[in-house]
Amino acid sequence: MRDDYQVYRAALPEVCAADPAKMVFTADAEGRCEVFAWDAAARRARQVTRRPRGTLHGAIDRDAHVWWFDEDEHGSGCWRFQPFAGGPDRAGLTNVPPGLPRGLAVGDHGTVALAAGDGHTTAVHVGPRGGAARTVSRVPGHVTLTGITPGGRLLALAGAGAVTVLTSEGAVRAVLPGGDTGRLWSLGFAPTAGSEELLLVREYDDRYLLASWQPDTGLTTHDWCAFDTEITARWAGDGRTVLVRQDRHGRSTLHRADLTARTLTPVPTPPGTLLDAAIRPGGDLHYLWTATGLPPRLCSTRGTALPVLPGLPDRFPGTHRDVWTPGPDGPVHTLLSLPDEPRGPAPAVFLVHGGPADHDRDAYDGVVHSLVASGFAVARVNYRGSTGYGPRWRRAFRDGVGLTQVEDLASVRADLVARRLIRADAVGLWGTSWGGYLVLLALGTRPGLWQAGVAVKPVADCVAAHRTTTPALRALDERLFDGTPDDVPERYARSSPIHYAAAVRDPLLVAAATHDAKCPPGQIRGYLAALRAAGARHESLWLDSGHDGYDGGDHVTVLRRAVVFLDRQLRGPAHRHPQTPRPTRSGEHHTAVHTTERRRTHAEGHHPQRPARG
Asked: How far apart are CA 115 and CA 157, in angstroms?
């Protein structure tokens, strides 16, 4: 049930189906995210990858081969593997050109399927593990391989609102459209031998429902398993039980769904966020849990040995509460963190999440920790368009793209000031990717309302970004704006930060990456030039990386620069130097959860076929 909603993060280990004691997970290695093999029986971990820029994608197959994606600074590369105990690296399939990772699946008998993108099309390759590849399909756009049947006969592809089932020879077995009433997400085939049942989530009638597909019976919607906010799910080993996680109002709940008995049973877990969860053989439940003031913890309902996360305090500074602010489409939910024993209203930083279809969670975040430890209040606003509040909330863009979200940020600011929780004269904004876009738009459309802004790898010019970003994000823009810049130029202009650059009068720090394909550097340079022409106060920081950096050094650089900048702008140089916690895992201040960029790689429903800027 993994959801890759952030740059990278700790997760429950991927487990070998034939030997559950053998697992693979990602962890820190000298300031980088790398792949490790974990032998639970021997309680021994082995570092598998040692790449200069770190490694994000890892997996383990039924025969206990460890897999990882060997990518360059632009995110392009190939899948490789080695035996669990170690040995020479081998290409997953030979004769496959480097590409962007679009999914890996391995059948029970070593049949490998992988998808690779070139920025314009997605190719699907099949072959024996380590052997020659056959290209069985090539489709336009961003498509994700989401599973292979245990026998290796069928593959599932997801993209453009539909799910396609292919044979391993490339013939189309079924096309499952989302339809006019919602969307459809593919979550993989049942793991039991002989089964060819595909698990799906369907959006229908403002609800999210489990669904499944089988060759003989077609698509079945399980109406008895319905939720009012986004869900994701995964199979248990028996192939009839499904573990469902619901994201609702910034927190998570778990349920076991029995597809045969048609029953849905809640699983007791503490209030907070479940970053990952899985049912293991024998019914043991493993989950990775956290809350804003508590570090992530790997838990087992039956005491199974799991990798130990880095030692950190049991609790972190600050008090944490929920605030609901009235709004035109319903109340806006804010996760508010306040310094310990504040003396009156505190200077505040709004951490603006990206996406746009994402949400802030009641989960530990190293940026929140750093700011609260430095005496700031931190507001994380789940503005309209956020997930976790139902389909209608996610679609509420009544004032226009970006402008609706800025309106919610301004309303929450006024509410927190009126409640005397934050200072009206010391409020800053900080966001990454689409969150950085909202920071720039807020400073340009509401000058003087904020006292400082930090925008990391932002969209700064909507038209230029559309022309130079990836095809998947270009399609996302066209869905948000209901057309291209040529079709609806006034909409792009009205929602573009560069249109308001001359109005910016609050101090601004912009951090950008020279190899960023999602929020390209050219459109940021154009925005910085507009700021200079207007005489706006600003600073810039350039990183020699892409949008999704795995090197902790870059994250720490941005964190320190941003905290010092906000401290200087919101409290002045007389204040003591801001505190930052000890870096952990990949060099970031995030215990087990890598959330520095505060972005997600996939939008809407936490399923990997939905691209998002962040």
From this structure: 9
With a CB cutoff of 8 Å and minimum separation 6, the contacts of 32 are 51, 52, 53, 54, 55, 550, 551, 552, 586, 587
**HEC-encoded secondary structure of 520-556:** CHHHHHHHHHHHHHHCCCEEEEEECCCCCCCEHHHHH
Q: Which tokens go with 434? A: 């689409």
d(CA 466, CA 419): 40
- Are 264 and 255 contacting, i.e. CB atoms less than 8 angstroms apart? yes
* φ, ψ (nearest 5 deg) of residue 114: -145, 150
Q: Tell me: the pLDDT tens digits for 100-126?
A: 999 999 999 999 999 999 988 999 999
CA angle 58–59–63, rounded 5-degree value: 145
**Are 12 and 1 in contact, with CB atoms under 8 Å apart?**
no
Cβ distance 366 to 595 under 8 Å?
A: yes
- Please check whether residue 165 is in contact with residue 176, taking contact to mean a CB–CB distance below 8 angstroms: yes
Between the alpha carbon of residue 53 and those of residues 45, 50, 70, 92, 444, the distances in Å are 21, 9, 10, 21, 35
Give tens-digit pLDDT for 170-228: 999 999 987 665 789 999 999 999 999 999 999 988 899 999 999 999 999 999 999 99
Query: What's the rounded Cα separation, in Å, for the pair 385 and 567?
Result: 30
The two tokens of residue 106 are 């391995």
266 phi, psi to nearest 5 deg: -65, 145
pLDDT tens for 441-468 read 999 999 999 999 999 999 999 999 999 9
Give the model confidence (pLDDT) of 80-101 as tens digits.
999 999 999 999 999 999 999 9
Helix (H) or strand (E) holding 587: none
Element (H, E) at 580: none
Backbone angles phi, psi at 582, to 5 degrees: -60, 130
Q: What is the CA radius of gyration of the chain?
A: 23
